[in-house]
Design brief:
The protein has 377 residues and is of the alpha+beta class. It contains 11 helices and 20 strands. The strands form 6 sheets. A 6-stranded mixed beta sheet has the order 4-3-2-1-5-6, with helices on both faces. Bound molecules: zinc ion (ZN) (2 copies).
Length: 377
């Protein structure tokens, strides 16, 4: 099936946002440097792709690394990306080398070099230490507090990603969601619509879980054909400028059998209560508990098997976390999902998820797709 490309309904200036990111880079690097003494390090090697992109602007970060020293910052990549790196990266120092570990060591002789323990491989660490002639300093989550609080241009990317997601869902629900259509084909059309509307790609493999498959929280689209009476869970997100949207809706196709329609009302009440409570100073733990309390009365709390939500940004799952074990407290500029769901094997389930920006005095819901219970005729 073909559909006409989607017209943008608001001006969106990607070049301006890229310029703002470049202008903000020196302050960001200083904020990173300020964290080094506390970690017992003089320099930092960044290898986790979202962090490489965060610090450099390089859009193929899986093939890049960033070294931050007290007076410089370097992007390392190889000769497949010489032109791309020069065009994209706001780091003036670029090292083009396949064998990059010795080059890193040369630039920080005798220094205490921090590495990302969750990402650098054991073999890479050994090679690096051999060239450095000393042990590296393993760190975890050094950039997490910075990444959690989005700057204005990052919020603009996320807002656009949410808008593209909304637009694609509305279009595909209208044109394709009906009995007889395979989940896979629905997912394909959702991806096409997001890319046509300006997405770089999808935030993750689109989830379309219909009928009994809706009991799987992460039921990636299958060959199952949607049947009349299904409640179809669609979890999707557009990636725009490297920033990931994430949204879930559950939509009835024909007359949905009980108790699913009832469950929907309970999950929606829990979701709306949690969204309403999003504000600076509220803990991730409190929000998670609030949503769970709403499901107790309906006897559904035990079927809400995952945490309430997570931050999104250059990764689809990042800080802060909204869960029973979260240590995070919301601050202005954070962008989080709020996504309670219930899942019962053999019966089905559903989830409702919005992307929410924490503002100075409360919140703004970035996802605009309708949430009221609906059954398509
Ligand atoms: Zn999701
Ligand atoms: Zn999510």
């Amino acid at each position: 099936m073909t559909t006409a490309p989607i017209e943008r309904d608001e001006p969106f200036d990607a070049a301006r946002l890229q310029a703002e990111a470049a202008a903000a880079a020196p302050a960001l690097l200083d904020a990173v440097r300020a964290r080094l003494p506390g970690a017992g390090a003089d320099a930092l090697l960044i290898t986790a792709p979202p962090n490489v992109r965060y610090l450099s602007g390089f859009t193929t970060p899986a093939d890049g690394r960033v070294l931050v020293t007290d007076d410089a910052a370097y992007l390392f990549t190889d000769d497949r990306y010489t032109v791309q790196a020069a065009e994209e990266s706001w780091l003036a120092e670029q090292v083009i080398a396949r064998d990059w570990l010795p080059r890193v060591a040369e630039l920080v002789p005798g220094q205490r070099l921090a590495i990302e323990a969750e990402h650098l491989t054991v073999a890479q660490r050994a090679t690096l230490e051999q060239h450095l002639g000393r042990e590296v300093v393993p760190t975890e989550g050094l950039l997490r507090p910075l990444r959690m609080r989005k700057r204005d241009f990052e919020i603009a990317w996320l807002r656009e990603a949410a808008r593209v997601t909304d637009q694609a869902l509305a279009q595909v629900v209208e044109s394709l969601l009906r009995p007889g259509v395979r989940e896979l084909d629905l997912a394909l059309e959702l991806e096409r619509a997001m890319r046509a509307a300006g997405a770089d790609g999808t935030s993750f493999e689109i989830i379309v879980a219909s009928g009994p498959r809706s009991a799987m929280p992460h039921g990636v689209a299958s060959r199952r054909r949607i049947e009349a009476g299904d409640l179809v869970t669609i979890d999707m997100g557009a990636r725009v400028g490297g920033y990931h949207a994430d949204m879930t809706r559950a939509i009835g196709v024909g007359r949905v059998r009980e108790p699913l329609a009832d469950w929907y009302r309970s999950v929606l009440a829990a979701q709306e209560a949690a969204v309403a409570a999003v504000a600076p100073g509220v803990s991730g733990q409190a929000l998670d508990a609030l949503a769970r309390e709403h499901l107790v009365e309906a006897g559904l709390a035990e079927h809400f098997s995952h945490s309430l939500g997570h931050g999104t940004g250059l990764a689809v799952h990042e800080g802060p976390t909204l869960s029973a074990r979260s240590q995070d407290t919301l601050e202005p500029g954070m962008v989080v999902t709020v996504e309670p769901g219930v899942y019962v094997a053999g019966q089905g389930g559903l989830r409702i998820e919005d992307l929410v920006l924490v503002s100075d005095d409360g919140h703004e819901v970035l996802s605009r797709s309708p949430k009221a219970y609906r059954e398509l005729a």
